[in-house]
């Protein structure tokens, strides 16, 4: 196990860092066809980290052709599951070997606290790759119950060329949730990281090559959404597009699929998750801790952020007081310091967007109970104080729209029925939390919650065995668990007449 590093160790590593900056196409690191680059910026300081290859449709065409050739000649797709497992297990091992380096890249690129980058982003990504590696030679196909005169085989074929377009809030983890099952199933995969956070994806390419993934099976195309992302979405030879990001862009990908080859489009989109705390909650301190974590963890840049705290009247004031105290103690700090609990917002645009929502909350009559301002202004970076609004009604803008920042809306309700009604009155349905000590209520009310994940007496529960994805405008399809393999395979029915 590597020794734990101090803030100074990480600063020293950062000063000496030379990250990969080229695209990874056909097993080689190469410049973009146009020769163009874009800057990736450290949101904690506002300074440029590196110039990154800016891919466009020409690079997409090249990568897709190589991915198709790799798929068709079977260099990966026809390998036995056991062989694919061996390579992916090696990849997980290499991710752990280089965990501190990967964590540093993630923190520098998108501003999250280094301790979380190491434990959660890199740790969970390596676990995810390992989990699918271990799963893939244990998944059986089916034989239909069709009697003695026929043999009905129900098998899963890899789908072909899979493009993954991912966001900046958990760059490595969101990529891993997609590429691990897609590669395990035998596909050729092209990853487009978000333009704010390309560094770990490029490091991952290096590790994939070292682990022994054949050329063309995994490629990385950094670039902008409306160029690289759109070209992947519209490509006639991409069979499947797996997306994580905003609902707005998710809708575009459905259109791209319709305008091109009807590729399978799987979407993990936005959220506005309710956190319902009923008056019979068993442990108010635990509920308060999870309420604060649920909105301030990762600076609130979490698709499942518990951004609406819906509280029964009799415990409202006591809970609010505790969440304010916890929020107060989570002030942003230097992301490279392992003691920091909240880091920087990903870029200036996102910071301004979040501050705009805070203004809107005040204008619509919300009571600013904590924070509300930019923090660490002298750092040159983009930090926002933990912010809590009370006196919010569910129809206010900040209770309806995804803010994607450390801004909590507290909504007071009179009873459990109103709480569930408010929780479900939302365009999104990614996750919901419920706090009660009553086991019957826990079951009956969680059935009523319209969300892909329901967490009872916790926020963000689960592990790789649990599927993850949304109802309503939070998307379709599921990441994680064996269900994710459905997205990256086609079901084939082979009927053999035995008469
Ligand atoms: P985004 O939608 O702006 O960008 C996501 C990706 O799409 C990026 O790679 C971007 O380059 C690309 N893109 C942007 N515009 C495009 C276009 N016109 N055509 C093709 N591609 C385009 O999202 P973001 O700001 O990076 O991330 C924040 C969003 O991601 C939030 O809404 C959040 O809820 C969501 N998210 C969802 C999950 C989930 O699992 N449901 C997980 C993490 C983040």
TrEMBL record:
Gene3D superfamilies: Aldehyde Dehydrogenase, Chain A, domain 1 (3.40.605.10), Aldehyde Dehydrogenase, Chain A, domain 2 (3.40.309.10). GO terms for molecular function: aldehyde dehydrogenase [NAD(P)+] activity. PROSITE patterns: ALDEHYDE_DEHYDR_CYS, ALDEHYDE_DEHYDR_GLU. Keywords: Oxidoreductase. InterPro entries: Ald_DH/histidinol_DH (IPR016161), Ald_DH_C (IPR016163), Ald_DH_CS_CYS (IPR016160), Ald_DH_CS_GLU (IPR029510), Ald_DH_N (IPR016162), Aldehyde_DH_dom (IPR015590). The active site is at residue 268. It holds the Pfam family Aldedh. Residues 29-493 form the Aldehyde dehydrogenase domain. Belongs to the aldehyde dehydrogenase family. This is Gamma-glutamyl-gamma-aminobutyraldehyde dehydrogenase. It comes from Insolitispirillum peregrinum.
């Amino acid at each position: 196990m590597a020794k734990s590093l101090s803030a100074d160790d990480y600063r020293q590593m950062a000063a000496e860092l030379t990250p990969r900056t080229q695209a990874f196409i056909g097993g080689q690191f190469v410049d973009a066809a146009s020769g163009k680059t874009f800057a990736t910026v450290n949101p904690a300081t506002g300074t440029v980290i590196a110039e990154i290859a800016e891919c466009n449709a020409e690079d997409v065409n090249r990568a897709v052709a190589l991915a198709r050739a790799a798929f068709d000649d079977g260099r990966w797709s026809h390998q036995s599951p056991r062989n694919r497992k061996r390579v992916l297990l090696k990849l997980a091992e290499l991710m752990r070997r280089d965990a501190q380096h990967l964590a540093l890249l993630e923190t520098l690129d998108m501003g999250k606290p280094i301790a979380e980058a190491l434990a959660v982003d890199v740790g969970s990504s390596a676990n995810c790759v390992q989990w699918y590696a271990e799963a893939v030679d244990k998944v059986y196909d089916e034989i239909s119950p069709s009697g003695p005169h026929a043999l009905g085989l129900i098998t899963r074929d890899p789908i072909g060329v899979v493009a993954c377009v991912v966001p900046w809030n958990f760059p490595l983890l969101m990529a891993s949730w997609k590429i691990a099952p897609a590669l395990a199933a035998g596909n050729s995969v092209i990853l487009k990281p978000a333009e704010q956070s390309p560094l770990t994806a490029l490091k991952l390419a290096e590790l994939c090559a070292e682990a022994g993934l054949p050329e063309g099976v995994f490629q990385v195309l950094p670039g902008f959404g409306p160029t690289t992302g759109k070209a992947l979405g519209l490509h006639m030879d991409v069979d499947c597009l797996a997306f994580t990001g905003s609902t707005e862009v998710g809708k575009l990908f459905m259109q791209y699929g319709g305008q091109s080859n009807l590729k399978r489009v799987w979407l993990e989109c936005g959220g506005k998750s309710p956190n319902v705390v009923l008056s019979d909650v068993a442990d108010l301190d635990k509920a308060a801790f999870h309420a604060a974590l649920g909105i301030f963890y990762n600076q609130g840049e979490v698709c499942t952020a518990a951004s609406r705290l819906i509280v029964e009247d009799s415990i409202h004031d006591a809970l609010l007081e505790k969440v304010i105290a916890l929020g107060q103690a989570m002030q942003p700090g230097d992301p490279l310091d392992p003691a920091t609990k909240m880091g920087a917002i990903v870029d200036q645009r996102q910071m301004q967007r979040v501050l705009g929502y805070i203004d809107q909350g005040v204008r619509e009559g919300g009571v600013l109970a904590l924070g509300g301002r930019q923090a660490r202004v002298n750092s040159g970076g983009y930090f926002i104080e933990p912010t809590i609004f009370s006196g919010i009604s569910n129809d206010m803008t900040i209770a309806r729209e995804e803010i994607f920042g450390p801004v909590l809306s507290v909504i007071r309700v009179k009873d459990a029925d109103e709480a569930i009604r408010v929780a479900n009155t939302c365009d999104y349905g990614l996750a919901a939390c419920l706090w009660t000590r009553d086991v019957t209520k826990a079951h009956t009310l969680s059935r009523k919650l319209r969300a892909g994940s329901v967490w009872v007496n916790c926020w963000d529960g689960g592990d790789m065995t649990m599927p993850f994805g949304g109802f309503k405008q939070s998307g379709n399809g599921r990441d994680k668990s064996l269900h994710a393999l459905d997205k990256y395979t086609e079901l084939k029915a082979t009927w053999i007449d035995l008469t």
